[in-house]
Automatic annotation (TrEMBL):
Domain J: 160-216
Stretches the record annotates as Disordered: 1-28
InterPro entries named in the record: DnaJ_domain, J_dom_sf
Highest taxon of source: Eukaryota
Protein name: J domain-containing protein
Biased composition (Polar residues): 1-10
SUPFAM superfamilies associated with the record: Chaperone J-domain
Species whose genome carries this gene: Fusarium mexicanum
Length: 233
């Protein structure tokens, strides 16, 4: 009588196990190459991980434009709490659902539950967003200091109003006022603690007032004024 072979439930041949381990190593390496990507290893779901990675740029861009638009470094801890709220998790879940490309799509509610179970996933979004916010803050500070140095240099060379304002092309009155707003957003002493901020802001206001008092329809730099100034964008 032929003997029956035992059923080996869950058995994997050495070759299959080796392939699985290789895929796992490759997945870990891929996630590690993404900022904070290793935090997603807790999910153990490649399809969900991919959708989360794809959703992050849109979520972070949205936060930078809205929730983090006026953030300061010293307030980051409070923003961590705000960006980890139920409302934000729902926002993330909706975007992740939209980015789902492979396998059976999870609902927004299922994704929200999964995210809520793993603080690491929230950190994947929040910490990266705060990093980008910090870069923006530092960039704004550098640009503001460069603008102050530009104005100081013009003053030292006894430059004219157009040079103070960095105007290198024809402007209307409304564009002239807009130029003032652009510069003051960087050098106004209420926003910039640089010792020269007040002086530069006053120089900008004086230059604008002098030009506007001429009551022209268009304002053009004097003949011979250097064209292509990088100060006016």
């Amino acid at each position: 009588m032929a003997s029956s072979s035992p059923t080996l439930t869950g058995y994997k041949s050495p070759a299959v196990e080796e392939d699985t381990e290789k895929q796992s190593r490759e997945r870990k390496a891929a996630l590690s190459s993404i900022p904070y990507g290793s935090l997603l290893l807790v999910l153990n779901d490649a399809n969900l991980e991919d959708a989360i990675i794809a959703a992050r740029p849109k979520i972070v861009d949205s936060w930078l434009k809205d929730e983090l638009s006026s953030a300061k470094r010293e307030d980051f801890e409070s923003y961590r709490e705000k960006l980890s709220s139920v409302k934000q998790i729902e926002k993330i879940s909706h975007e992740v659902c939209n980015e789902w490309k492979r396998g059976k799509r999870k609902t927004s509610a299922e994704i929200a539950n999964k995210i809520s179970e793993h603080q690491e996933v929230i950190e994947f979004f929040v910490e990266y967003a705060l990093d980008q916010c910090m870069l923006n803050i530092e960039s704004s500070r550098r640009e503001a200091r460069e603008e102050i140095e530009r104005i100081l240099s013009v003053q030292q060379q006894h430059g004219n109003e157009y040079e103070i304002l960095g105007i290198d092309k024809r402007l209307t009155r409304s564009q002239l006022r807009q130029r003032r707003r652009e510069i003051l957003s960087a050098v106004h002493p209420d926003k910039n603690k640089d010792a020269e901020a007040k002086n530069c802001a006053q120089a900008v206001n004086d230059a604008i007032d002098t030009l506007l008092e001429q009551n022209k329809t268009f304002y053009e730099p004097p003949v011979g004024y250097p064209q292509g100034s990088e100060a006016h964008k």
